[in-house]
Amino acid sequence: MTSHFTIDNLQYANWSEKIFRQMREGGVDAVHVTIAYHEQFRETVSNIEQWNGWFECYPDLIRMAYTADDVCAAKRDGVTAILFGFQNPSPMEDDIGLIEILHRLGGRFMQLSYNNQSLLATGCYEAEDPGITRFGKQAIAEMNRVGMVIDMSHSADRSTLEAIELSARPIAITHANPHAWHPALRNKSHEVLKALTDAGGMLGFSLYPHHLKDGSDCTLESFCKAIADAAEHYGAEHLGIGSDLCQDQPDSVVEWMRNGRWSKQMDYGEGSASNAGFPPQPEWFVDNRDFGNLRAGLADAGFAANEIDGIMGDNWLRFYETSFGPATS
To answer: Is the pTM higher than 0.90?
Structure first.
């Protein structure tokens, strides 16, 4: 068994035995899966029930993980560890006590906002960003206490910078890229990435085509060069992969992702009215079997072997070790 880990810290696939087997074929040791976009608490519990069924049906392929040790044990046993996360604080509704309950159910990452203003923070598509709310400040403290990672992937700049400052523990941007490489609204400014990494946080590079320079035609060389540039500015130890892979999802799911219940009109987000569904993946990263291409691309970009191991998964594992348990004094 190899000592290095391959970890994808964000996927929202249309889960199936086929995808679970592809994870094993690709040597993927752990995946942070989105189990809620706009779902409230009870709906999120229903999604967890569905995952429990998959864990029961496919114990030779996937396993629930709560800690970094669980990820290591899954790797030893040749199965992929699954970590739960939420792309919106909707599962906690307006009840701060649900943060601890969600953590006990396996929630390890929660975004404070998804594109729009939430009760906690501002999303990146709002015209104004008043920052972290009063409730948001208390939610951050509670997430710090129980060991749920603050994720600002879809949040606006001021809210993100305030979350970094307010959090007593390092936070994550699980799936986004540098704005300087590709100026998508969801990609992150140098100011944000510098503050994130200076505070010990992690950036997961996204392979969602709207986040990529040249979209679906982005080359592996360009993607790995962007990672190399980020490593030069922020340190390779703060970088990983958060592919945002939405494999096998029907285009209709995009409406749920972008609209939830808040809008009757289609919110095209980073796409356009003529491309409202999922764009094609770059040919070098179509599914979980393609992680080897990323490893080879990073080598061609000049990374040392230990840096490649870190970006491909070891950095996320180290982050898990210090992030998922109760805060220590």
So the answer is: yes
